[in-house]
Design brief:
The protein is built from nine helices and eight strands. α3 packs across α4. The chain has a single domain, classed as Alpha/Beta hydrolase fold, catalytic domain (Rossmann fold, 3-Layer(aba) Sandwich), CATH 3.40.50. About 40% of the residues lie in helices and about 20% in strands.
Amino acid sequence: MAVRIRRLLIVGVALYLAVCAAMFVLQRRLQYVPDASPLPAPAAVGLPGAVAEGLTTQDGERLVTWWVAPSDASQPVFLYLPGNGANLVNRARRFERLTAQGAGLLAVSWRGYGGSSGSPSEAGLMADAGAAYARLAQRVAPQRIVIYGESLGTTVSVMLAAQVPAAALVLDSSFASALAVAGSAYPWLPVRWLLRDPLRADLAAPRVNVPVLQVHCRDDPVIALQFSLRLNELLPQRRPLHIVEARCHVPSLLQYETALFDFIGGVMAAQR
């Protein structure tokens, strides 16, 4: 009996280690879901004022960005860092509303996503965001740049905002870290040892010294509200989390645009 139990334990440990190894090897396929579909011209999806531009990162990847030049000098320019699913086409209506009053926008198609070379990783996304910010800072003063992160892009946005000057930070469906989310989803795995891209926005958040607006769905099936609340606690210039009373992940802009534009109006007025 003892020998049998010992063999079962050995088999169980071996299977567990095999699962850990598989999760380590395959983790980026689980963490990132890039839509590599080619991007049409922005005008073809209802954005006649937008221009598709190429952008080369420091590590040599070639990205696609969509640029909408601001038509009103009193309005901000959004650096839009999107989420994990779909591509820029699926955000066209959001971009249209963000720029309707004369604001500018530079939206990034992450490496490995529509039209961009490479494959995503934490270091790669930070390189993409840094290259996009540098391009934007050549065009407008940092005091007009609003870094706008969506879901996956919120962690990159927080880490970027901790490093560069900007007017404000908007976080739609944010979370404190991928490490915390993965640890909650896989409590039976040693996630801290396995995760290669922990996306520790929580470590960068105390260094973000600009006004922050966070938006989150009350019942988010992808990123639980608790992870956004944790991040909110760490931001020095935070305001209360704006909660959308719905079951959703990345709410429609219509669900919070009043709060967003009130926030942006206050930020831009303070810059004058």
